[in-house]
Each structure stands twice: as structure tokens, then as C-alpha cells.
Amino acid sequence: MRIGTDALHQSLLLGMAGVQLVPPRFRGAVHWAELVLHGLLDGAIVSSFCLENLLHSGQVPKWDGLATLPLGQLGLDLVGVTPHLRRVLLPHKSATPLLRQAVGWHGLGVEQQPSACQEPEAWIQLARERRLAMPACIDLLGTNWLAANGLVRLAQQPPLIEQLWLLLPQGAVDTKAARQCLRLLRAQINKAPGIQALPQGV
Fold it and tell me: Which pLDDT score, from 0 to 100, does residue 104 have?
């Protein structure tokens, strides 16, 4: 299966059996849905930060012809070369509008990531060169990742909790490959420290 996602969540797919990696890209939720609906991708991992509007508790984004399967929740950390940075490097507003909104609400400045800067290594390098903070999911990457890249958590950490979904064509939900992918993704997310596990069978 060709599963698309962005640099923040690409590590969920590394080494996963039956999944063909595609280059990570930051896209809005509607764009991800269109790619899956038109068969350019077999599925996509979508974050609530990619939505245009906040959902009410229990709501799930919906698109005709697609199934939106909940994966669980993750927390994002803001990291940088020092713990006292005040500006954050984020993708284009159209790709992660609610992430930009959440960061701005907590008094932090935002600088736009160049569209060519999509791979994790390029993102880290740019943030380091410009002395900007950047979001990262340390629950997935581990604290050793911080040390390896010369980064630390910012002293000011806004609560950045995201909901993740797997988008699949409705006709593909019950295939063996889709069920296996869903099970493995949920298992990884449920192992993340401090995140409530998704009930089995949801």
C-alpha cells in the first residue's frame, strides 16, 4: 500500500510490512482526501491540525467515498537549538492551518517553511540555521533523537495534542492489507508515552 503523510508522522510508516513509502509532504486534509479518492495514494495519515476548522468532541471528518478511521492521539513538542526561542518554523498555512493557529494563540511567532523543505533533515537544518523552533513528535522519535540532532524542548510548551486518522477508499477498508496497516499504526500510537490508548475494535 502507498500511504502518504508528512514529515511529522513519516516515522510511523518506517519498516512497516506491506507499506511502500512515498516522499513526505505537508498537505491540507482536503488535498490528502483528493489524492486517495482519485487513486494516486492507497491511503493517507491525516492530522487534526491539517483540518480547516476545529471539530467538536467525537466528530470525525468525512468525505464521500472515503473511510476515516481513528488511529489515536499524539502530542507534539516544540524543539530548537536553545529552550528559549520565540519563533516557530511551520508549514504553509494551507497545509496545517490549525497548527499555526494553536502556536499563534500562545504568543509565539510563526515563520513559513519553504515548500521545497519537506524532508525531515532539510527541516531540521533550516530551523537550526535560522535559530527557529519546530514541532516534533518526541513520543514517536524518542529523546535520543533530540540529542542526536542537537535539539532541546522549548521552555514554553503549548498543549499541541492532535488526533490522527487513516483515510482509505471505502471499498478497501476490509482488505487484509488495510486491516494490517490499521492495526500496526494503532499499536505504535498506543505505545506513545502519556497518550490514552484507543479502545480495541474502534
Answer: 92
* Amino acid (one-letter) located at 91: P
Secondary structure in 3-state letters for the chain: CEEECCCCCHHHCCCCCCCEECCCCCCCHHHHHHHHHCCCCCEEEEEHHHCCCCCCCCCCCCCCCEEEEEEEEEEEEEEECCCCCCEEEECCCCCCHHHHHHHHHCCCEEEECCCCCCCHHHHHHHHHHHCCEEEECHHHHCHHHHHHCCCEECCCCCCEEEEEEEEEEHHHCCCHHHHHHHHHHHHHHHCCCCCCCCCCCC
Over the chain (202 residues), the average pLDDT of each successive run of 10 is 94 90 93 97 96 86 96 94 95 93 93 84 90 93 90 92 96 93 93 56 42
Q: How many CB atoms lie within 10 A of CB 160?
A: 18
Say if residues 119 and 24 touch (Cβ distance below 8 Å).
yes
pLDDT value at residue 117: 80
Residue type, 162: E
